[in-house]
Amino acid sequence: MSGVRVLVGTHKGAFVLTSSPRNGRWDVSGPHFAGWDIYHIKGSPLNPDRLYASQSSDWFGQVIHRSNDGGKTWTPVGNQFSYDGNPGTHQFYDGTQHPWEFKQVWYLEPSLTDPETVYAGVEDAALFRSTDGGDTWQELPALRAVKGHLWQPGGGGMCLHTILQDPADPNRLYIAISAAGAFRSDDGGQTWRAINKGLHSDYELPDAAADVGHSVHNIAMHPSRPDVLFMQKHWDVLRSDDAGENWREVSGNLPSDFGFPIAVHAHEPETIYVVPIKSDSEHYPPDGKLRVYRSRTGGGEWEALTKGLPQKNCYVNVLRSALAVDTLDPCGVYFGTTGGQVYASADSGDSWTAIVQDLPKVHSVEVQVLP
Amino acid sequence: MIRLILPTHLWRLANTDREIEIEVAEPATIGATLDALERRYPMLRGTIRDHITKERRAYVRFFACGEDWSHEPQEMLLPEAVLKGEQPLRIVGAMAGG
Hints:
The structure holds two protein chains of two kinds.
Chain A: E1 3-10, E2 13-19, E3 27-32, E4 37-43, E5 51-57, E6 61-67, E7 75-77, E8 89-91, E9 97-99, E10 104-110, E11 118-123, E12 126-130, E13 138-139, E14 159-165, E15 173-178, E16 181-185, E17 193-194, E18 216-221, E19 229-233, E20 237-240, E21 248-249, E22 258-264, E23 272-277, E24 292-295, E25 303-305, E26 323-325, E27 333-336, E28 342-345, E29 353-356, E30 362-370
Antiparallel strand pairs in A: 1-2, 1-30, 2-3, 4-5, 5-6, 6-7, 8-9, 10-11, 11-12, 12-13, 14-15, 15-16, 16-17, 18-19, 19-20, 20-21, 22-23, 23-24, 24-25, 26-27, 27-28, 28-29
Chain B: E1 2-5, H1 8-13, E2 19-22, H2 30-40, E3 60-64, E4 67-68, H3 80-83, E5 89-93
Parallel strand pairs in B: 1-5
Antiparallel strand pairs in B: 1-2, 3-4, 3-5
Protein backbone atom coordinates (compact mmCIF):
# COMPACT_ATOMS: atom_id res chain seq x y z
CA MET A 1 0.00 0.00 0.00
CA SER A 2 1.46 3.36 -0.93
CA GLY A 3 -0.88 5.51 1.10
CA VAL A 4 -4.19 6.67 2.42
CA ARG A 5 -5.84 9.74 0.94
CA VAL A 6 -8.60 11.52 2.86
CA LEU A 7 -10.73 13.90 0.80
CA VAL A 8 -12.28 16.59 2.96
CA GLY A 9 -14.98 18.98 1.74
CA THR A 10 -15.45 22.08 3.86
CA HIS A 11 -17.42 25.30 3.96
CA LYS A 12 -14.49 27.21 2.46
CA GLY A 13 -12.59 24.78 0.29
CA ALA A 14 -11.38 21.22 -0.15
CA PHE A 15 -8.43 19.60 1.59
CA VAL A 16 -6.55 16.46 0.65
CA LEU A 17 -4.84 14.67 3.53
CA THR A 18 -2.36 11.95 2.67
CA SER A 19 -0.37 9.51 4.75
CA SER A 20 1.54 6.33 4.46
CA PRO A 21 -0.67 3.76 6.09
CA ARG A 22 -0.55 3.97 9.83
CA ASN A 23 2.59 6.08 10.10
CA GLY A 24 0.62 8.83 11.83
CA ARG A 25 2.04 11.66 9.73
CA TRP A 26 -0.34 13.53 7.47
CA ASP A 27 0.44 15.85 4.63
CA VAL A 28 -2.28 18.48 4.21
CA SER A 29 -2.88 19.99 0.80
CA GLY A 30 -5.35 22.79 0.31
CA PRO A 31 -7.46 24.74 0.41
CA HIS A 32 -8.42 23.73 -3.10
CA PHE A 33 -11.22 25.89 -4.55
CA ALA A 34 -10.62 28.35 -1.71
CA GLY A 35 -13.75 30.13 -0.58
CA TRP A 36 -16.19 27.75 -2.26
CA ASP A 37 -18.55 25.51 -0.32
CA ILE A 38 -17.36 21.96 -1.04
CA TYR A 39 -20.21 19.64 -0.25
CA HIS A 40 -18.55 16.53 -1.60
CA ILE A 41 -15.37 15.25 -3.21
CA LYS A 42 -15.01 11.59 -4.12
CA GLY A 43 -12.76 9.30 -6.14
CA SER A 44 -13.56 6.63 -8.68
CA PRO A 45 -13.30 3.09 -7.30
CA LEU A 46 -11.91 2.07 -10.70
CA ASN A 47 -9.27 4.78 -10.91
CA PRO A 48 -8.42 6.35 -7.56
CA ASP A 49 -6.71 9.32 -9.20
CA ARG A 50 -9.98 10.26 -10.93
CA LEU A 51 -11.70 12.59 -8.47
CA TYR A 52 -14.86 14.65 -8.72
CA ALA A 53 -15.57 17.70 -6.57
CA SER A 54 -18.69 19.80 -6.13
CA GLN A 55 -18.25 23.49 -5.43
CA SER A 56 -21.13 25.79 -4.75
CA SER A 57 -21.59 29.39 -3.83
CA ASP A 58 -24.57 31.58 -3.06
CA TRP A 59 -22.98 34.12 -5.37
CA PHE A 60 -21.78 32.08 -8.32
CA GLY A 61 -23.84 28.91 -8.23
CA GLN A 62 -22.65 25.40 -8.97
CA VAL A 63 -19.31 24.29 -10.38
CA ILE A 64 -17.96 20.75 -10.80
CA HIS A 65 -14.28 19.91 -11.13
CA ARG A 66 -12.58 16.70 -12.19
CA SER A 67 -9.04 15.61 -11.41
CA ASN A 68 -7.09 12.88 -13.16
CA ASP A 69 -4.05 13.03 -10.88
CA GLY A 70 -5.43 12.51 -7.40
CA GLY A 71 -6.23 16.16 -6.80
CA LYS A 72 -2.95 17.77 -7.84
CA THR A 73 -4.64 19.52 -10.76
CA TRP A 74 -8.30 20.10 -11.55
CA THR A 75 -10.36 20.81 -14.64
CA PRO A 76 -13.77 22.49 -14.53
CA VAL A 77 -16.40 20.30 -16.19
CA GLY A 78 -20.12 20.67 -16.85
CA ASN A 79 -22.21 22.61 -14.38
CA GLN A 80 -25.57 22.64 -16.15
CA PHE A 81 -28.11 20.68 -14.14
CA SER A 82 -31.41 21.16 -15.93
CA TYR A 83 -34.42 19.21 -14.73
CA ASP A 84 -36.05 17.05 -17.37
CA GLY A 85 -39.15 19.00 -18.38
CA ASN A 86 -41.12 21.15 -15.98
CA PRO A 87 -40.27 19.82 -12.53
CA GLY A 88 -43.45 21.20 -11.00
CA THR A 89 -43.77 21.72 -7.28
CA HIS A 90 -42.99 20.05 -3.97
CA GLN A 91 -44.13 20.71 -0.43
CA PHE A 92 -42.59 23.67 1.32
CA TYR A 93 -41.93 23.81 5.07
CA ASP A 94 -45.47 25.02 5.74
CA GLY A 95 -47.10 22.33 3.60
CA THR A 96 -47.87 24.62 0.66
CA GLN A 97 -46.61 23.76 -2.81
CA HIS A 98 -43.36 25.38 -3.92
CA PRO A 99 -41.59 25.37 -7.30
CA TRP A 100 -38.71 22.96 -7.81
CA GLU A 101 -35.46 24.95 -8.19
CA PHE A 102 -31.91 23.70 -8.66
CA LYS A 103 -29.64 24.96 -5.88
CA GLN A 104 -26.54 22.78 -5.59
CA VAL A 105 -24.93 19.37 -5.86
CA TRP A 106 -24.73 17.62 -2.51
CA TYR A 107 -23.23 14.27 -3.45
CA LEU A 108 -21.12 12.78 -6.23
CA GLU A 109 -21.01 9.01 -6.67
CA PRO A 110 -18.56 7.70 -9.27
CA SER A 111 -19.74 4.48 -10.92
CA LEU A 112 -18.48 1.10 -9.78
CA THR A 113 -18.29 -0.10 -13.37
CA ASP A 114 -17.30 2.83 -15.61
CA PRO A 115 -14.81 5.56 -14.69
CA GLU A 116 -16.55 8.04 -17.01
CA THR A 117 -19.92 7.59 -15.32
CA VAL A 118 -20.77 9.54 -12.19
CA TYR A 119 -24.03 10.26 -10.39
CA ALA A 120 -24.92 13.57 -8.75
CA GLY A 121 -27.50 14.08 -6.02
CA VAL A 122 -28.80 17.62 -6.01
CA GLU A 123 -30.98 20.11 -4.17
CA ASP A 124 -33.90 20.54 -4.95
CA ALA A 125 -33.88 16.79 -4.86
CA ALA A 126 -33.11 14.95 -8.08
CA LEU A 127 -30.60 12.46 -9.42
CA PHE A 128 -28.39 13.30 -12.38
CA ARG A 129 -25.96 11.10 -14.27
CA SER A 130 -23.00 11.91 -16.46
CA THR A 131 -21.48 9.32 -18.78
CA ASP A 132 -18.70 11.59 -20.05
CA GLY A 133 -16.70 12.26 -16.92
CA GLY A 134 -18.90 15.12 -15.77
CA ASP A 135 -18.90 17.16 -18.98
CA THR A 136 -22.67 16.86 -19.39
CA TRP A 137 -25.42 15.84 -16.98
CA GLN A 138 -28.81 14.27 -17.57
CA GLU A 139 -31.52 13.87 -14.98
CA LEU A 140 -33.07 10.48 -14.17
CA PRO A 141 -36.51 12.06 -13.85
CA ALA A 142 -38.63 9.06 -12.90
CA LEU A 143 -37.43 9.47 -9.33
CA ARG A 144 -39.37 12.73 -8.94
CA ALA A 145 -42.50 10.92 -10.12
CA VAL A 146 -42.56 8.95 -6.87
CA LYS A 147 -44.88 11.39 -5.09
CA GLY A 148 -42.45 14.27 -5.52
CA HIS A 149 -45.23 16.71 -4.75
CA LEU A 150 -45.18 15.35 -1.17
CA TRP A 151 -41.44 15.70 -0.65
CA GLN A 152 -40.34 18.57 1.55
CA PRO A 153 -37.12 20.28 2.58
CA GLY A 154 -35.37 19.34 5.80
CA GLY A 155 -33.28 21.80 7.77
CA GLY A 156 -30.55 21.69 5.12
CA GLY A 157 -32.90 22.02 2.18
CA MET A 158 -34.55 19.37 0.01
CA CYS A 159 -31.44 17.48 -0.88
CA LEU A 160 -30.59 14.14 -2.45
CA HIS A 161 -27.56 13.42 -0.27
CA THR A 162 -26.88 9.68 -0.49
CA ILE A 163 -26.32 7.40 -3.49
CA LEU A 164 -25.47 3.71 -3.07
CA GLN A 165 -24.69 1.27 -5.86
CA ASP A 166 -25.25 -2.46 -5.47
CA PRO A 167 -21.91 -4.10 -6.35
CA ALA A 168 -23.70 -7.35 -7.22
CA ASP A 169 -26.24 -5.75 -9.55
CA PRO A 170 -25.19 -2.70 -11.58
CA ASN A 171 -28.85 -1.89 -12.25
CA ARG A 172 -29.72 -1.50 -8.59
CA LEU A 173 -29.35 1.95 -7.05
CA TYR A 174 -30.43 3.31 -3.70
CA ILE A 175 -30.77 6.99 -2.92
CA ALA A 176 -31.92 8.98 0.08
CA ILE A 177 -33.51 12.40 0.29
CA SER A 178 -34.21 14.71 3.19
CA ALA A 179 -37.11 14.93 3.58
CA ALA A 180 -38.59 12.36 1.23
CA GLY A 181 -37.06 9.05 2.32
CA ALA A 182 -35.20 6.19 0.71
CA PHE A 183 -35.81 5.01 -2.86
CA ARG A 184 -34.61 2.09 -4.97
CA SER A 185 -34.25 1.50 -8.66
CA ASP A 186 -33.75 -1.99 -10.11
CA ASP A 187 -33.28 -0.84 -13.69
CA GLY A 188 -30.41 1.59 -13.63
CA GLY A 189 -32.51 4.57 -12.62
CA GLN A 190 -35.27 4.30 -15.22
CA THR A 191 -37.95 3.59 -12.62
CA TRP A 192 -38.01 4.05 -8.87
CA ARG A 193 -40.06 3.22 -5.84
CA ALA A 194 -40.11 4.38 -2.26
CA ILE A 195 -38.67 1.92 0.29
CA ASN A 196 -39.81 3.41 3.57
CA LYS A 197 -41.94 0.68 5.14
CA GLY A 198 -41.15 0.55 8.84
CA LEU A 199 -40.08 4.18 9.16
CA HIS A 200 -42.04 6.24 11.68
CA SER A 201 -41.81 10.02 11.86
CA ASP A 202 -44.20 10.84 14.67
CA TYR A 203 -43.19 14.47 15.08
CA GLU A 204 -42.53 15.36 11.46
CA LEU A 205 -45.42 13.91 9.45
CA PRO A 206 -49.20 13.91 9.93
CA ASP A 207 -49.14 10.23 8.90
CA ALA A 208 -46.12 8.91 10.80
CA ALA A 209 -45.83 5.88 8.51
CA ALA A 210 -46.35 7.69 5.21
CA ASP A 211 -44.85 6.31 1.99
CA VAL A 212 -42.71 9.42 1.51
CA GLY A 213 -41.75 12.52 3.44
CA HIS A 214 -39.37 11.00 6.00
CA SER A 215 -36.15 12.81 6.78
CA VAL A 216 -33.67 10.04 6.05
CA HIS A 217 -30.24 11.43 6.90
CA ASN A 218 -27.97 8.71 5.56
CA ILE A 219 -27.95 5.05 4.49
CA ALA A 220 -25.03 2.65 4.26
CA MET A 221 -24.30 -0.90 3.10
CA HIS A 222 -21.44 -3.35 3.21
CA PRO A 223 -20.46 -4.33 -0.34
CA SER A 224 -20.52 -8.04 0.51
CA ARG A 225 -24.18 -7.87 1.59
CA PRO A 226 -25.92 -5.32 -0.59
CA ASP A 227 -29.39 -6.36 0.58
CA VAL A 228 -28.60 -5.28 4.13
CA LEU A 229 -28.99 -1.54 4.60
CA PHE A 230 -28.45 0.63 7.64
CA MET A 231 -30.15 3.99 8.09
CA GLN A 232 -29.72 7.02 10.27
CA LYS A 233 -33.05 8.79 10.10
CA HIS A 234 -33.72 12.23 11.60
CA TRP A 235 -34.62 10.31 14.74
CA ASP A 236 -34.05 6.51 14.83
CA VAL A 237 -31.38 4.17 13.55
CA LEU A 238 -32.83 1.38 11.43
CA ARG A 239 -31.81 -1.62 9.36
CA SER A 240 -33.29 -3.54 6.48
CA ASP A 241 -32.38 -7.12 5.59
CA ASP A 242 -34.36 -7.20 2.37
CA ALA A 243 -33.02 -4.40 0.19
CA GLY A 244 -35.18 -1.79 1.85
CA GLU A 245 -38.52 -3.59 1.60
CA ASN A 246 -38.90 -3.49 5.38
CA TRP A 247 -37.06 -1.55 8.05
CA ARG A 248 -36.83 -2.10 11.80
CA GLU A 249 -35.44 0.16 14.45
CA VAL A 250 -32.08 -0.78 16.00
CA SER A 251 -31.44 2.34 18.08
CA GLY A 252 -31.14 0.16 21.21
CA ASN A 253 -29.14 1.77 23.99
CA LEU A 254 -27.90 4.84 22.09
CA PRO A 255 -27.95 7.97 24.27
CA SER A 256 -29.81 9.71 21.42
CA ASP A 257 -30.99 8.16 18.20
CA PHE A 258 -30.85 11.48 16.37
CA GLY A 259 -27.81 11.91 14.15
CA PHE A 260 -26.57 12.36 10.64
CA PRO A 261 -24.03 9.82 9.31
CA ILE A 262 -23.92 6.04 9.49
CA ALA A 263 -21.12 3.77 8.24
CA VAL A 264 -20.28 0.08 8.06
CA HIS A 265 -16.92 -1.46 9.01
CA ALA A 266 -14.93 -2.49 5.93
CA HIS A 267 -14.47 -6.12 7.01
CA GLU A 268 -17.26 -6.79 9.50
CA PRO A 269 -20.67 -6.36 7.86
CA GLU A 270 -22.46 -6.33 11.22
CA THR A 271 -20.24 -3.62 12.71
CA ILE A 272 -21.70 -0.17 12.24
CA TYR A 273 -20.97 3.35 13.44
CA VAL A 274 -23.11 6.38 14.26
CA VAL A 275 -22.49 9.69 16.02
CA PRO A 276 -25.43 10.48 18.32
CA ILE A 277 -26.53 14.11 18.40
CA LYS A 278 -28.71 15.53 21.14
CA SER A 279 -31.76 16.56 19.13
CA ASP A 280 -33.11 18.05 15.93
CA SER A 281 -32.63 21.57 17.25
CA GLU A 282 -29.56 20.95 19.44
CA HIS A 283 -27.04 19.82 16.87
CA TYR A 284 -24.26 18.75 19.21
CA PRO A 285 -23.35 15.60 21.13
CA PRO A 286 -25.26 14.75 24.32
CA ASP A 287 -23.57 16.00 27.49
CA GLY A 288 -20.85 17.83 25.54
CA LYS A 289 -19.07 14.50 24.94
CA LEU A 290 -18.06 13.61 21.40
CA ARG A 291 -18.73 9.89 21.17
CA VAL A 292 -18.84 7.62 18.19
CA TYR A 293 -21.06 4.63 18.89
CA ARG A 294 -20.21 1.22 17.47
CA SER A 295 -22.46 -1.78 17.26
CA ARG A 296 -20.92 -5.17 16.50
CA THR A 297 -24.36 -6.73 16.28
CA GLY A 298 -25.77 -4.77 13.39
CA GLY A 299 -27.53 -2.40 15.77
CA GLY A 300 -29.41 -2.83 19.01
CA GLU A 301 -26.36 -3.02 21.26
CA TRP A 302 -24.02 -0.07 21.11
CA GLU A 303 -20.75 0.88 22.79
CA ALA A 304 -19.34 4.37 23.16
CA LEU A 305 -15.95 5.02 21.55
CA THR A 306 -14.32 7.90 23.39
CA LYS A 307 -10.56 7.39 23.59
CA GLY A 308 -8.91 10.45 22.08
CA LEU A 309 -12.17 12.35 21.56
CA PRO A 310 -13.13 15.41 23.64
CA GLN A 311 -15.27 14.35 26.59
CA LYS A 312 -16.26 17.75 27.91
CA ASN A 313 -17.46 21.05 26.48
CA CYS A 314 -17.72 19.70 22.93
CA TYR A 315 -20.58 21.13 20.90
CA VAL A 316 -19.71 20.29 17.30
CA ASN A 317 -21.83 18.33 14.86
CA VAL A 318 -20.85 15.58 12.43
CA LEU A 319 -22.68 15.96 9.14
CA ARG A 320 -24.15 13.15 7.08
CA SER A 321 -21.32 12.70 4.58
CA ALA A 322 -18.53 13.29 7.09
CA LEU A 323 -17.97 9.71 8.33
CA ALA A 324 -16.01 7.17 6.29
CA VAL A 325 -14.00 3.98 6.60
CA ASP A 326 -10.90 2.75 4.81
CA THR A 327 -10.23 -0.80 3.65
CA LEU A 328 -7.05 -1.44 5.63
CA ASP A 329 -6.90 -4.17 8.25
CA PRO A 330 -7.69 -3.22 10.92
CA CYS A 331 -10.28 -0.92 9.46
CA GLY A 332 -9.63 2.81 9.71
CA VAL A 333 -12.52 5.13 10.58
CA TYR A 334 -12.55 8.87 9.90
CA PHE A 335 -14.93 11.71 10.59
CA GLY A 336 -14.99 15.49 10.32
CA THR A 337 -16.81 17.98 12.50
CA THR A 338 -18.48 21.33 12.08
CA GLY A 339 -15.65 22.67 14.25
CA GLY A 340 -13.09 21.80 11.60
CA GLN A 341 -11.48 18.74 13.16
CA VAL A 342 -10.90 15.52 11.25
CA TYR A 343 -10.47 12.55 13.57
CA ALA A 344 -9.02 9.23 12.50
CA SER A 345 -8.96 5.84 14.13
CA ALA A 346 -6.55 3.17 12.91
CA ASP A 347 -8.13 0.49 15.09
CA SER A 348 -11.78 0.30 14.07
CA GLY A 349 -12.74 3.13 16.41
CA ASP A 350 -11.06 1.97 19.64
CA SER A 351 -8.91 5.11 19.75
CA TRP A 352 -8.87 8.41 17.87
CA THR A 353 -6.46 11.15 16.87
CA ALA A 354 -7.21 14.54 15.36
CA ILE A 355 -5.28 14.56 12.10
CA VAL A 356 -6.23 18.20 11.44
CA GLN A 357 -7.83 20.50 13.97
CA ASP A 358 -8.71 23.86 12.50
CA LEU A 359 -10.27 23.47 9.10
CA PRO A 360 -13.49 25.26 8.15
CA LYS A 361 -16.76 23.44 8.93
CA VAL A 362 -16.43 19.94 7.47
CA HIS A 363 -19.19 18.85 5.10
CA SER A 364 -17.76 15.57 3.85
CA VAL A 365 -15.00 13.02 4.37
CA GLU A 366 -14.09 10.27 1.92
CA VAL A 367 -11.14 7.89 2.19
CA GLN A 368 -9.10 6.13 -0.45
CA VAL A 369 -6.49 3.44 0.06
CA LEU A 370 -4.05 3.94 -2.77
CA PRO A 371 -2.58 0.96 -4.61
CA MET B 1 -11.86 46.10 -26.41
CA ILE B 2 -13.91 46.02 -23.24
CA ARG B 3 -12.05 45.95 -19.95
CA LEU B 4 -13.61 43.56 -17.45
CA ILE B 5 -12.83 43.14 -13.79
CA LEU B 6 -13.85 39.74 -12.43
CA PRO B 7 -14.50 38.74 -8.82
CA THR B 8 -11.81 36.59 -7.20
CA HIS B 9 -13.72 33.31 -7.38
CA LEU B 10 -14.36 33.71 -11.10
CA TRP B 11 -10.92 34.78 -12.31
CA ARG B 12 -9.47 31.89 -10.33
CA LEU B 13 -12.04 29.52 -11.81
CA ALA B 14 -11.21 30.76 -15.32
CA ASN B 15 -7.48 30.59 -14.54
CA THR B 16 -6.99 34.13 -15.79
CA ASP B 17 -6.31 37.59 -14.36
CA ARG B 18 -8.50 39.85 -12.27
CA GLU B 19 -8.72 42.34 -15.11
CA ILE B 20 -9.05 41.11 -18.67
CA GLU B 21 -9.74 42.67 -22.03
CA ILE B 22 -12.28 41.12 -24.30
CA GLU B 23 -13.32 41.76 -27.89
CA VAL B 24 -17.05 42.37 -28.11
CA ALA B 25 -18.91 42.67 -31.39
CA GLU B 26 -21.02 45.81 -31.82
CA PRO B 27 -23.37 46.75 -30.39
CA ALA B 28 -21.39 46.19 -27.19
CA THR B 29 -24.20 45.59 -24.74
CA ILE B 30 -23.95 44.00 -21.31
CA GLY B 31 -25.36 40.79 -22.78
CA ALA B 32 -22.93 40.77 -25.72
CA THR B 33 -20.04 41.31 -23.32
CA LEU B 34 -21.14 38.38 -21.16
CA ASP B 35 -21.61 36.26 -24.30
CA ALA B 36 -18.02 37.02 -25.33
CA LEU B 37 -16.75 36.34 -21.82
CA GLU B 38 -18.52 32.96 -21.67
CA ARG B 39 -17.24 32.01 -25.13
CA ARG B 40 -13.65 32.62 -24.08
CA TYR B 41 -14.12 31.05 -20.64
CA PRO B 42 -16.84 28.38 -20.90
CA MET B 43 -16.33 27.43 -17.26
CA LEU B 44 -17.96 30.73 -16.32
CA ARG B 45 -21.27 29.71 -17.89
CA GLY B 46 -23.88 29.52 -15.18
CA THR B 47 -21.79 31.42 -12.63
CA ILE B 48 -22.84 34.96 -13.58
CA ARG B 49 -26.22 34.28 -15.17
CA ASP B 50 -28.49 31.33 -15.73
CA HIS B 51 -27.45 28.84 -18.43
CA ILE B 52 -30.78 29.00 -20.22
CA THR B 53 -32.68 32.15 -19.25
CA LYS B 54 -29.51 34.29 -19.10
CA GLU B 55 -30.97 35.96 -16.04
CA ARG B 56 -28.33 37.52 -13.78
CA ARG B 57 -27.70 35.52 -10.61
CA ALA B 58 -29.21 37.24 -7.62
CA TYR B 59 -25.91 37.87 -5.81
CA VAL B 60 -24.00 39.12 -8.85
CA ARG B 61 -23.87 42.83 -9.67
CA PHE B 62 -22.49 44.88 -12.52
CA PHE B 63 -20.82 48.23 -11.80
CA ALA B 64 -19.51 50.71 -14.37
CA CYS B 65 -18.40 54.33 -14.17
CA GLY B 66 -19.46 54.57 -10.54
CA GLU B 67 -22.98 53.40 -11.25
CA ASP B 68 -24.92 50.21 -10.67
CA TRP B 69 -25.81 48.55 -13.99
CA SER B 70 -27.11 45.35 -12.41
CA HIS B 71 -30.73 46.06 -13.17
CA GLU B 72 -30.30 47.43 -16.67
CA PRO B 73 -31.56 45.16 -19.43
CA GLN B 74 -28.81 43.08 -21.00
CA GLU B 75 -29.62 44.75 -24.34
CA MET B 76 -28.41 48.07 -22.89
CA LEU B 77 -25.33 49.52 -24.58
CA LEU B 78 -22.42 49.92 -22.18
CA PRO B 79 -21.46 53.50 -21.24
CA GLU B 80 -19.16 55.41 -23.55
CA ALA B 81 -16.17 55.30 -21.18
CA VAL B 82 -16.40 51.50 -21.04
CA LEU B 83 -16.74 51.24 -24.82
CA LYS B 84 -13.59 53.37 -25.21
CA GLY B 85 -11.70 51.25 -22.69
CA GLU B 86 -11.29 54.19 -20.31
CA GLN B 87 -13.30 52.45 -17.57
CA PRO B 88 -13.84 48.76 -16.80
CA LEU B 89 -17.10 46.93 -16.42
CA ARG B 90 -16.89 45.36 -12.99
CA ILE B 91 -18.59 42.07 -12.22
CA VAL B 92 -18.99 41.94 -8.46
CA GLY B 93 -20.19 39.46 -5.89
CA ALA B 94 -22.87 41.18 -3.82
CA MET B 95 -21.89 42.34 -0.35
CA ALA B 96 -23.55 39.44 1.42
CA GLY B 97 -20.56 37.77 3.02
CA GLY B 98 -20.51 39.51 6.38
